[in-house]
Specification:
By secondary structure, this protein is of the alpha/beta class. Helix content is 52%, strand content 10%. Strands 1-2-3-4-5 form a five-stranded parallel beta sheet. The radius of gyration is 21 Å and the shape is globular.
């Protein structure tokens, strides 16, 4: 993230040195600590600045790096500049644009306006990637059908269902896949815990991170929502003990929930 041409040029070259095949310019973050510095979604206030940043990241001559893409919202306060921002990103040289059709002011509230993705697709000469409210296979199929987008990007829906990517791919390819078993759930939660530790997290901090994603993962049925409330009240400060408590609850879910299918 950033809005300073030279700094973004330097940052892009550093990422390329580290092996980046593609660098994505974030024009979607609505956090005030980001937008007050002119970065993230605030780039959408001035389309010419957005295009200039893309152009700077690409560079020219022997230093040119063409694989720059853009992730953008539909606007900052409103959507009046939406199509102008799309044009500006393309004119700047973006290879693809991901559209999350909520404004910065909306943050994650309300419904994503998929009609705007369709509008972008009609005018764009580069691939348009649809994003926003893709929480199931059905929703993935609907956004592709209704907008004509070239691809989709999944955000918070993947926290609620980490296997959503596999399920969507299976739908579009005609594959048949088995639903995740308790071992798959164990692998997901233990891998997430390990990643937190690998990046320097403490036992207490990791417990907090596990609780953060409980809000999404345990929101699938009434039984899980009630279990979530109990887990969030847990006094475990050791992440390993808390991990076993989560798995125990998931095993109970498979035995006692009558609303969910596990076959």
């Amino acid at each position: 993230m950033g809005s300073h041409d030279q700094r973004m040029w330097v940052a892009t070259r550093e990422l390329v040195k580290r092996g980046a095949y593609r660098v994505d310019l974030n024009c979607g973050c609505p956090a005030s600590r980001v937008t007050k510095k002119g970065s993230g979604a605030s780039l959408l206030k001035t389309p010419s600045v957005l295009g200039g940043v893309v152009r700077s990241m690409i560079g020219s001559g022997s230093d040119e790096f063409p694989n720059i893409t853009v992730k953008m919202r539909s606007g900052f306060e409103d959507t009046q500049l939406f199509l102008e921002n799309v044009y500006s990103a393309i004119d700047g040289g973006a290879r693809a644009i991901t559209v999350h059709p909520r404004t910065s002011y909306q943050k994650y509230n309300g419904l994503a306006d998929w009609n705007l993705i369709g509008e972008a697709r009609k005018i764009s000469t580069v691939p348009i990637i649809g994003n926003g409210d893709i929480t199931s296979v059905q929703r993935a199929a609907e956004i592709v059908e209704s907008t004509g987008c070239d691809a989709i990007m999944i955000g918070r829906g993947a926290v609620r269902n980490p296997w959503l990517f596999h399920e969507i791919r299976a739908h579009f390819t005609g594959e048949t896949i088995a639903p995740p078993g308790i071992e798959d759930e164990w692998n997901f939660w233990s891998t997430y815990r390990k990643a937190g530790r690998d990046f320097g997290g403490t036992a207490r901090g990791n417990t907090g991170r596990l609780k953060m994603i409980l809000g999404y993962y345990f929101d699938k049925c009434t039984w899980m929502k009630e279990a979530k409330a109990r887990l969030l009240r847990s006094h475990h400060v050791d992440d390993e003990s808390f991990l076993y408590e989560i798995i125990d609850v998931l095993e109970q879910h498979r035995k006692h929930c009558t609303d969910c299918s596990f076959e």
